[in-house]
Amino acid sequence: MSQRSLEAREPVARAKRPESHTRDRVRFRTATAADVPALVPLINAAYLREAHVLPPPRIDEELLGEEIAEKTSRMIVAEISGEPAGCICLRIDARGAHFGVLAVAPDHQGVGLAPLLVGEAERRALAEGQDVLRLDCAKETGMPAYYASLGYEIEKETPGHFYQNRKVRKGPITRVDMMKRIR
Questions:
Q1: 3-state SS of the chain?
Q2: Smaller CB count within 10 Å for the chain: N or C?
Q3: By the 8 A CB rule, do 39 and 64 touch?
Q4: What is the residue extent of each domain of the chain?
Q5: Distances (CA, A) of 37 to 62, 149, 156
Q6: Mean pLDDT of 58-79
Q7: For residue 121, what are the contacts with CB-CB under 8 A and spacing of at least 6?
């Protein structure tokens, strides 16, 4: 087993405080359909960390294109030196604000970019009149502790859940629903 494979199984227990050079270099923008070819491999590479729980791929070009085109979605891209370094999907609909598909390119991991992406999603949700932001994740990935370090609280856990879209069904996992008051 490669060193990367071993590292991929280690949960990320706490969010890393963004390094000042990262904070100064990152620019946020909303994704367009033209970003799909660059974002799909970035997302899939970032989610290899969870491959032992949810086998890859995480997303394909068709599904990401549909997500970007969805009127309730805002795919936020973090660029460093003009290149996509990470992304997060913010969805605001009748049920409120929710984020997912938080991904940081492997060569930009460990410098605090993910907390900056979550912070940008929080700012945008707040600007659209939301006072709570929600997410869900698989308990088996260790991510609930990571999100707790960003101020998110567990609302409920659902064992035996399957991650599913119209193309794949993966699981079972323990789905953890979390929330944070952002106002």
A1: CCHHHHHHCCCCCCCCCCCHHHHHHEEEEECCHHHHHHHHHHHHHHHHHHCCCCCCCCCCHHHHHHHHHCCCEEEEEEEECCEEEEEEEEEEECCEEEEEEEEECHHHCCCCHHHHHHHHHHHHHHHCCCCEEEEEEEHHHCHHHHHHCCCCEEEEEEEEEEEECCCCEEEEEEEEEEEEECC
A2: N
A3: yes
A4: 3-130
A5: 10, 32, 35
A6: 96
A7: 76, 88, 90, 99, 133
90: tokens are 């913010």
pTM of the model: 0.91
**Residue 182, amino acid:** I
* Mean pLDDT across the chain: 91
Architecture of domain 3-130: 3-Layer(aba) Sandwich (3.40)
Tens digits of residue pLDDT in 22-60:
889 999 999 999 999 999 999 999 999 899 898 899 999
**For 114-171, what is each residue's pLDDT tens digit?**
999 999 999 999 999 999 999 999 999 999 999 999 999 999 999 999 988 878 888 9
**Closest to 59 measured CA to CA, from 170, 155, 158, 174:** 170
Q: Measuring CA to CA, which residue among 61, 50, 28, 60 is closest to residue 143?
A: 50
88 forms beta bridges with: 76
